[in-house]
Amino acid sequence: MSELYRVLVVDDELLVRQGVKHILNWEQHGFCIVGEASNGKEALEMIAELSPHIVLTDVVMPVMDGEELTRLIKHSWPDIEVIVLSSFSEFDYVRSTFQSGVSDYILKPHLETKMLLSVLERTVERLPAGLKRKPQADYTITLNQVLEKLIDRYEVEIDQTMLAEWFPYQKYYIMGTAVDEGEQLLESLQALISEMTLYPLPVNSIPRHPELRTYVVNIGQNAEAENILLSKLKLLYPSSVTDSGDFVWALSGPFHSLDQLGGTFHRSFLPLLSYRFFLPVPMVLAPSELPHFEKVIRASASLNDTALHALMEHIRRLQLEEGFGVLYQFIAQQSKSYNTDVFEFKSLIGNLIFNVIQLLGTMNMSSDALNEAKYSYFKAIEEAGHVTDIITLLEQFRTQIDRSIHEATSSFHDGNPNMKLLLDYIDKNYTEPITLTEMAKQFHFNPSYLSSFFAAHHHEGFKEHLNRVRIDKAADLLRGSDHSISEIGSMVGYADHSYFCKVFKKNTGISPSQYRRQYYTRVEKEQG
Fold it and tell me: What is the model's pTM?
């Protein structure tokens, strides 16, 4: 068998790279793809390691584009031939690459098997004589190539005789196992199950689970051994996850044809791994072992429309226990729906932390330490492997903002005993038509001095504080009473109904009627 021409594919779009890989049987025509890169910088590193004969590259890419890549290739490796992939809009850009020594180009909209093969054959003719190869006559597709095509969800014709040699049994599974436990687990399984064969799947590192290695498992099937693989795994390791949250193993449901490999991997196995984030830690990670699934509102809709608003309202009132209670209740509800998108959930938690810190800043309740800590919170959220990590993080966050609020309020009140009297007076008399002038008379202050004193020793001015107290009380009544909105406005000190609605919306972002409607809608959903 003659040596194959080595080809490196460079494109920042994964789908394009996959399309190029599977558009033809490369080995059958004397070529093999030795690597993939997503930009010119990665490509240069791989060229030094893999020594390809041909580089097939996109033009417009991040970090280093195809034009710069071509120039550097021809400077350092003049014998390597370069073929450019281009879209119509990039054609003028492609012309400049020919000045650097490009062999040929292919327009992406016209990329098809015959054209690519024709361009490759023309490019081979440009290679130095010493690198020429004889046509490949005895090519046979390998098991690894078959699995790679199936995982990428491309159709592939499989010789049934070869298939029977590779996988002689009737039932298939996909199994993932952690590196540190992998060899021991596989050896133990093979010792327990005689009719079984395993083969590693040619997949890239799985996002958020880089330590996991995946295998296609082929196992015999009979009436007594329907669940033999799962039962043996549970015998070896009762839980598929360690106490520290690392995977020992994960197992897909069974499938009965190798053609179903790609669909099972993408629609069953990968989602199964993501469920781990919300499921209890001592959990067997297999479809038949999953707990009852509860459908809940999508995280983004639920948090943005109800929990986030409720939390921010409690923070404005400095009611941390109630606010975080709402948040923990939301997280518990999402955990029941373990197919919640993990990335979306983490993004919402990060957004929540950012908004709380911003709100505390507007209330003069934040601190430099809290502002600096938000970046470490964002990083910890991104790296969290389980929902319990998020809860622990939020508890730390609550402790820190509690400390920040305490420091801020202490600085407001220290040395100003009158400040507490002023705030207590407002809390007791907010239902009355309080004015700055009347309050100044009550405490024997000049109105101008009282206004300045209030602003200097509190996180908000007199008018803002009075309105906030009244709106907080109005919100309590909207949630806990049957009084009409106009009655509630009067009960908290607003004689003018339209002015009450205006102030309420300014403070909460929604009208009193919308607030009441959203609250009861949320209650009905939680109870239903």
Answer: 0.59
